[in-house]
Amino acid sequence: MERIVECVPNFSEGRDEKVVRSLVEAVEAVEGALVLGTHVDADHHRSVVTFVAPPEQAVEAAVRVTRRAAELIDLRAHAGEHPRLGACDVLPFVPLKGVGIGDCVQLAHEAGRRIWEELGIPVYFYESAALRPERRNLADVRRGGFELLREQIGTDPARAPDVGEPRVHPTAGATVVGVRPLLIAYNVTLKTADLALARRIARAVRERDGGLIHLKALGFELKTRGVVQVSMNLTSYERTNLHHAFEAVSREAERLGVEVLGSEVVGLVPQAALDRAAARFLRLENYSPDLVLENRIAAAVERKRKKS
Amino acid sequence: MERIVECVPNFSEGRDEKVVRSLVEAVEAVEGALVLGTHVDADHHRSVVTFVAPPEQAVEAAVRVTRRAAELIDLRAHAGEHPRLGACDVLPFVPLKGVGIGDCVQLAHEAGRRIWEELGIPVYFYESAALRPERRNLADVRRGGFELLREQIGTDPARAPDVGEPRVHPTAGATVVGVRPLLIAYNVTLKTADLALARRIARAVRERDGGLIHLKALGFELKTRGVVQVSMNLTSYERTNLHHAFEAVSREAERLGVEVLGSEVVGLVPQAALDRAAARFLRLENYSPDLVLENRIAAAVERKRKKS
Predict the structure, then answer these.
(1) Separation in Å, CA of B268 to nearest CA in chain A
(2) By C-alpha distance, which of B166, B182, B289 is closest to A268?
(3) Residue B83: which pLDDT band, with cuts at 50, 70 and 90?
(4) Which end of chain B is more exposed for a tag (fewer CB within 10 A), N or C?
């Protein structure tokens, strides 16, 4: 695949595995669309299907999976921990290869139009796809969930959708479609049960409070393990990478007399992020992707294929 | 490619680029054989062509490139820094994927037989392909070079070839064929011009003198830069990896009051070596190859391909 878009739809279903399987099938029925993984959360009654596809197929797969969600999920029967607006609740597009944020914004807008026209579900655009500045933040768009939106959408202009008439779909609600950059979810675990300490370190390292750019961080408890975590999103690993985040947290932890137990990546991590971390720690003066044997083999395969 | 063998023939030609290009063409004429790179050394009057292929094609390409070397290189006209026995001097096979050392030994023996039968060049087997324990070490097989072998081969039984009659090819000499594991050539540069110090650190870290297993190391001068290097071969990176070597050298350097300037990989490095180094430095508790986005995409492509 020369051009790859990732799509990470979130659904308001986390208890019925059959529904999730059907959603996966809807995606994979599209030529070129590939499901990389699913995450199902019964407590939150929510699931996530991660897929990749070339740009146009990503839109097709997004519309089909939203249709399947509307067929199988009745929001009136849904109650879970997580605030949600729709059967397919959030639909972010992520540029992976050969595409940029701008390209994905066009895809998001096209998907949004089709979701309204073909499924009768009103659509809101958020993050980089937002048409109004006050809609950039997902939490603001979703405030009060489906039940509050259903009351307000017909009367409050501030709640009118970006695409579609001002009424929710009776069972599928509304869908929030957006574009965000590839992010890495990365947690560092600390040898303490003191949540305030994790929060303090999170504040010290995150962009919002004067720490590293492109870094979001929160403190969390891992009750089952009796320890705490600095839970981070790296929103631009080319600038702020795993090793930057790790070193910043380690430094703060050391300053506060706490030991680092380890770290974990949640979900997927791009190869380049690991390579650059290795190159940094090893102080490799000559790192480049074509130092890597497998890359060199792939390039040779491609070169020979083009000659013939 | 499901099964991949790497082959790293060394040739006694390092000044005429046209010869090297012709050698590359001889390899790539074989369907499935891919040249990953070449290294040409005018001082040593020597070159290396690195290629990969499925097992049978690796043997075919090895024989063809040895034939091309015999056609183009006249050893009687060759004088260089490096001791050598043949136009194609050394021919190591390296298991990369889906093959083991034993498989490659069979390939090496088959290549050796064909080199004698088709080209009239006597062959010696070394390292894991050796038929005699005293021939495991390449330096012992090559002692005295072409000129000395030419004198001794007919009369000294200790110098009789493993395949072929006891006479050198008049212009192509003899070829030493073997099997070795994938190795990583890795250097750490030190902020000093003191060669004795680099040698001391090399002795401290290498297996031979009680250091890390699967690690060879020597001290070298980089005269042009006015510094020294600990130059290493990692002969089993799954056990002794880049970060082990780096940390061992760094520790010794610190003990001796010398700063580490940086490091470099010479040639190619397998992806897994970098990934594991990153996972080690980041203290990643959940590293596995399918955490990596590109691997997950490749697996999904494969899975979908098999379904259809």
Answers:
(1) 5
(2) B289
(3) confident
(4) C
Residues of A in Cβ contact (< 8 Å) with B285: 189, 262-264
pLDDT exceeds 90 at position B61: yes
pLDDT value, residue A79: 76
DSSP secondary structure letters along A200-211 = HHHHHHSGGGTS
What is the nearest CA distance from B208 to chain A, expressed in angstroms? 24
Amino acid A12: pLDDT:
95
Tell me, yes or no, if B52 comes closer than 8 A to chain A by beta carbon: yes
pLDDT digits (tens, 9 = 90+) for B175-186: 999 999 999 999
Q: Is A82 a catalytic residue?
A: yes
Cα separations in angstroms, B88 against A253, B5, B119, B292:
58, 19, 12, 40
Put simply, whether the predicted model's pTM sits higher than 0.95 gets the answer no
Supply angle C-alpha A260, A263, A268, rounded to 5.
Answer: 165
Nearest to B278 by CA among A8, A255, A271: A271
A236-245 per-position pLDDT tens digit: 999 999 999 9
Residue B159 predicted with pLDDT over 90: yes
As a whole number of angstroms, the distance between CA A106 and CA A123 comes to 14
Checking if the pLDDT of B219 tops 80, the result is yes
Provide the residue type at A195 as one letter.
L
Alpha helices in chain B (DSSP H): 17-28, 55-72, 101-119, 138-142, 145-152, 195-205, 242-255, 271-281, 293-307
Question: Could you give the C-alpha distances from A305 to A167, B21, B165, in angstroms and in order?
Answer: 54, 19, 42
Cβ-contact B84, B12 below 8 angstroms: yes
Q: Which of A94, A97, A184, A274 to mutate to test the interface with B (most CBs of B within 10 A)?
A: A274
Hey, what are B271's tokens?
């992806």
In A, minimum Cα distance to B30 occurs at: A304
3-state secondary structure of B48: strand
Name the strand (E) or helix (H) holding A19.
helix A17-28
Query: What tens digit of pLDDT does each residue of A30-41 get?
Result: 999 999 999 898
Residues B306, B308: Cα–Cα separation, whole Å:
5
The identity of residue A58, as a single letter, is: A
Residues 6+ apart with CB under 8 A from A237: A182, A183, A184, A214, A270, A272, A273, A276
